[in-house]
User: Which sequence fits this backbone?
């Protein structure tokens, strides 16, 4: 397990799981929302995001948390050797987001 893609609906525990996996495995964790958005929720340009994403997924070891965008998701999923899809019932995602 050297390249891990973690994805699924919002509020399902992806970030918590990703942090724990990073701690256990020693793999660097990259959270796509932190790459795609600056503080205050301002979105970076698509080109800047794609460039940062490419630099990450071309390295040898990573955990990437999140979806990003359609242009980059398939590149990442093809490159990953491990995929974790958080698929809880929607009411659970809603409950976890609002608790």
Assistant:
């Amino acid at each position: 397990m050297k390249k891990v893609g973690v994805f699924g609906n919002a509020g399902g525990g992806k970030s918590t799981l990703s942090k724990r996996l990073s701690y256990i495995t020693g793999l660097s964790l990259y959270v796509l929302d932190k790459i795609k958005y600056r503080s205050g929720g301002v979105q970076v340009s698509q080109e800047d995001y794609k460039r940062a994403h490419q630099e990450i997924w071309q390295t040898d070891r990573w955990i990437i948390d999140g979806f990003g965008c359609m242009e980059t998701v398939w590149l990442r999923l093809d490159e990953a050797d491990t995929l974790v899809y958080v698929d809880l019932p929607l009411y659970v995602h809603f409950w976890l987001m609002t608790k």
